[in-house]
Each structure stands twice: as structure tokens, then as C-alpha cells.
Design brief:
The protein folds into six domains: 19-141, Rossmann fold (3-Layer(aba) Sandwich), CATH 3.40.50; 151-197 and 480-586, Topoisomerase I, domain 2 (Orthogonal Bundle), CATH 1.10.460.10; 202-227 and 238-273 and 413-475, Topoisomerase I, domain 3; 280-408, Topoisomerase I, domain 4 (Orthogonal Bundle); 608-677, no CATH class; 690-741, no CATH class. The chain has 19 helices and 27 strands. The strands form nine sheets. Strands 9-10-15-14-11-16 form a six-stranded antiparallel barrel. The chain has a four-stranded parallel beta sheet with strand order 2-1-7-8, with helices on both faces. The chain has a four-stranded antiparallel beta sheet with strand order 21-22-23-24, with no helix packed on it. The longest helix has 28 residues, at 143-170.
Length: 745
Amino acid sequence: MLSSPGPKALEFKPFMPSNLIIVESPSKARTLSKFLSRDYEVKASMGHVVDLPRSKLGIDVEDGFTPDYTVIKGKERQLQELKSAARKAGRVLLAADPDREGEAIAWHIANQLRLKQPERIVFREVTRPAVEAALKVPREIDRNLVDAYQARRSIDRLLGYKLSPLLWRKVRKGLSAGRVQSVAVRLVCDRELEIEAFKPVESWTLDARLETSSGEGFSARYHPPAKGRRGRVADDEGGSALPNELAARQVMAQVEGQPFRVASVEVRHQRRNPPQPHTTSTLQQEASAQLRFSPSKTMRVAQQLYEGVELGSAGPVGLITYMRTDSVRISDLARDEAHTYVASTFGPRYLGSKGAARRREAGPVASQDAHEAIRPTSVERTPEVVAEHLSSDQLRLYRLIWRRFVASQMSPAEFENTRCELEVAGHQFRATGSRLTFDGFTKVAAAEEREDQLLPLLAEGDLARLLELLPEQHFSQPPPRFTEATLVRELEERGIGRPSTYAPTVELIQTRGYVRQVERRLHPTPLGVAVNEALTTQFPDVVDLGFTAELERRLDAIEAGDEGWIPVVRSWYEPFAKVLEKAQEDMPRVRVKAPPAGGDCPRCGAELVVRTGRFGEFVGCSRYPECDYIQGREERAAAEEVGEACPECGRPLVKRRGRRGPFVGCSGYPKCRYIRPEPGASRPARPAPEPTGESCPECGQPLVRRMGRFGPFVSCSGYPKCRYRPPRDAAPAAPVATAGGGDGR
């Protein structure tokens, strides 16, 4: 009789999430994973997974500007992980950032994963309510946004890859040009020309220290009796100026010792409206002015606040809304929360009008108006509440955003301004006073420090005694050089670039060497001036401010579905290609003038220019090789002799200084290259070659590891007779010790 089988063993099946969400960054993925249920797996694409190839143009201009998108080198593994996760999931949701770039990333991922019906979700703050709301309303990928991205990417690629090689040939290797960066360089160069052409104009002001009959003192400033349309004295600032010292002395002579009579006293009540919430541009400007942050640092820290910060037991929370926006609009929910907070914290009088706030937010629809302004995701998370969880930079920037948003929903500040006109000997002086009567939004906003400027009680007909006349000379000032923040503001006001381009553009023109920063002011370098002159001469449309702004507007039209991206690219490229072809033949070689304004070669009288050699830039004669003058070489040649002869050629040995410190070398350099280290010079010895245990496939001698300029490498021990070096991928991977324990870089 057969025995009955026992109970069937239970089989363990691992839980498989049925939904896959793909975001851009790992930190955002971690934040979402903490508050989403187990039904959701969150993966990061690490930004773009495909792009135009770096090694070639990647745009087929003959076939409708078809882009050749390829997987980015190094992203193969990441893409394979996404494909594997997508095959296991029943549903894939694409949650890249809510802008053109993010839409293109979602589109590329959908194509790579071969999703038949890709679902796109968009949230502008990384919080549980925002993400849950987005999950309820997935949509299709917006092809208009994708097309706007493709147009922008294609134009930038065509411009960069067509124009940069020309600059390499005509100016210097390693240069680049760009649709926005070249315009930014032009703005800096044009401002420098304005400063150089500026001629100061002299003017004088005349202040009178006065005293009332009761002994109260105050000051008044001379104002010439210029009449406006209604016979009133003009209010312009220039109205208080005298043309020169002679005019000032004439007025002083006429009013000296004369009583000042009060002609009129006018009191005005003024309201100062609160600022609007931050956009990308205003955040970068204010962070620069108050925190000394560069635009790139501001965006880096803002990205951290947006993607999520660990708030103790509350877990990771996105503290601000999306930080790339040019809209000042905020949601009704956020406005209601802010009004509740202001009323309960400061009182009803500090509460701003919702209607007034909405009117300030109204205006032309911006390209990124789908976003809100930059604001805290919850006004209840005050800077004091989250301070212990944030780094110093994160807290300072969050405080800036939080205060600006709360202030935008508060009531105006109120001032009482007093203006007193005084007459003496046919001349007119003016005294002004101001006091804050209600602080309003300034209770929260980081307003500038100010003190009330009070006038004594004055009435028409009162007399004041002159104590002292104070003339002061002034000269008009040239326009200031741009800071990083004011350059961003200029780009925004001219409609050049978009929120995502401001910070990288300002950083790029400095890393390329076109602009340098001195005491936080941007100065064009000789290289930047040379490149700008070449572009404005040969390619005026590329750096034309109006043309660039118009192109931005056409990109917005593509996004709105009013234009096709291929016609927009074609209408730009065809005339550009003709100008480029002509420049290839006609454009002369551009020489970079030596700073500050060139100068002449002391040998032949030709212009001095900046040239590039093995060890960087130097100033030399523009007629090289006919004239080999190099600035400073004569000074170096006149080095101190050490009283010894060179053991190789017999010429005197001299002391020199190089990159690694002082040394003794032959005065016949470069014909004789004898050198020896000076005692005390920091010239670390390279380690001895280390055997690898392998043989050279060409000569059979042992292979050894050496230390070179760019780190460790493997080569034949028979060098220089045998110059065999294996490919880097095939080289033995054992570490090589370096003198002093360095990392070999």
C-alpha cells in the first residue's frame, strides 16, 4: 500500500513591483521611493541616455536635418538596467523634469525601451501630494516640447560644429562658438568699449546746513529753478547739479548770510509693493548679491533642495518647486497656505490682497509658464524648522526663497515722504525727509538697511538760518562692468537664452577664456575681444542680439505648436551656410592683441600679439618667424651667472627658475639644454621602473611599469631602442607607488 504524499512545500516568489517610474537623478529616485508604496519601483536615468555623437556632426542636413541619436558612452549599463526593469514591470511611467529637456529625455527613453504607449507624469515639486496627484493624470509625451528641444539642439550643434573649426584655423585651436555664449561675450565686449569711450562730465552739488528758530538742524540741496509743464520744479536727479565750480561759487556768494524762507511743504504717502516670487533669473541675481553665490552654484544647491532633503523622521522631502522657470505665477493652494501663515503669524494687517498679487503675477505668457515661480513646497517648513537638516549653503538659499515667497503675499510697506522747498536770494533749495509708517512685507523680506530721515516741523513762511555751505565736485561715471548676476539679468531682459541656459553660459565663457572675473566684475580677455571681432565681422547674425532673441521666440512657437521644427532650422541654416562658405575663403587670420592695448615689438616695430606654446600663452612678435622676439625672454636671458662653465658646451651656467623651482642651466639654451637642480629645489625623483613579469612581444625584453607626466604606464625596458607600449586597456592594472605617496595625476 502506497503512503500518501505529505503537504506540498510552499514556494517563495519574490515580490515584483507592477509600476516602474523613471526619473532623472538618483536623489529624486530615493526621495520618491521613501513615500511611494511597494507597487512602485523608481529608477534614475542619470539625465540623457542618448544624444548626438561627439565625434561627428550628427545632423543630416541633406535629409531634412535628421538627427543621428546614439547611446551616450558610459550609459550602456544604465540603459540596460532600465530595459530589464521595464520588461518586469506592467506599467512604465516617465517622470523626467518638467521642461523641454525633460520631455526629450522621456521621449528618448521611451524609444530605447520600445514602449508602445509611453505614459508621462509631471510634478513640479517632489512631495507626496504632488506626486500622487501626477500619478492620477498621466499623459502622452508632448511632441511639441520634444520638437522645440530638437530645433534648439540641432541649431546649437550646427552652429558649434560648423563655426568652431573655422575659429580653430583662423584664431586658435580649442575655441568654440555658441548661439548664446557668443552673444554673452559680445555684451561683455560692448560694455568694455562703452567704458573705454566714456568721457566723464563734471558737475557740482551745493548743500546748505540750516537751523530753525527752535534750534533744530537739517540740510537742503540747491535745485535750479527749472520749470516743468505746470511750472513746478522738475524732480529729476540731474536737477540738483551745477555745471562747474564757478557756478557753484556764484550761488554761494549770493546766498551767503541770507535767510532761507520756506516756500512750500508737501507731505506724500507712498506705498511700496512687495516683490514677486523668485524666477530663475532673480534667484541667481539675489543669491549673487546677498550670498556671493555664482549662478552655477545657485542652481546646484537649488537642485538639491528640489530633489529632496532628509528631514529626520519625515524622511526625504523636496523643499522647493522646480527651479528653472521664468514665471512668477503661483498656485491657489500655495497662495491660500501663505495667507493663512501670514495672518496667524503677523496679524491680519500684514496680509496682502490676493487680487493685487494675481495682478502682479499677470503678464506675457513665458516659455516656462507651465511652471510656478520658485517657492517653498510648504510655507510651514520655515528656515528655522529645517535648519538642522540642511547644509550651510542649502539653508542660506532656502531662506532666500522662503522669505521672498512669504513677502510676496504680504501687504505693501508704507512711507511718509516730506518735501520742503526753500527760497533764498532768488535761488531754490530742497530738503527731503522720509519715515516708515508701516513695515508691511519688509518685516520678512531682507530689505536694505535704512534709517528714517526726519525733517523738523516746518510751515510755509518759516525762516531758517544758514550755518554752512558745502560744495562738492562730481564726475559722471561710466556704465559698470557686468557681474555674473547682472549679465544674467541682461540676457533675460533681451530675451536671449532661457532659465536653463543662464548659469552654464556664464560659466562657459569664463572656462573658455573669453571673459575673466576680477573683483566679481567680468572683463573681456584679449582672446574674447579677438573672437568677438571675428564673429561680428564675418557672422553678424550669430551675435546679433535681436536675431538671437527672435530665434528664442520661434522656439517658443514650436513649443506652442504654431511652427514646425524643421522649417525653423532650415530658415536659419541656409543663410548661415552661405556666410560660412564665404568666410572659409575670405576671413583673414585673427591675431590676439597683447594686453592691455597691444604695443609694438622693440626689435622690428610690428604689433605684439598673444601666442600659444608648449607651456601656455606668451606675448611675442606678430611677424614670427621673421622676428622671434618674446616678451620677457631678454630678462630671463640676463640671469645671474654662477661662475661655472657648462660641462657640455663650455658656455657660462646661470641660475634660472622653472615650474619645479630654481635650477642651474646653460646660458646657451635652447641650443644647449644642460640643466642641474639647484640645492633645495623641490624636484621629486621618479620611482624606478617596476618589472611586470611579462615580456615585450616585439623584442622579448621585460615589460616594466613607469611613472610619466600623465600617470603610470607600461612599456618595454629596452626603451629607447624598443618603443613598444601595450594598449592602455591591456596594461597590467597593479598600482604604481609614487614619490611622496601621490595619486599619480
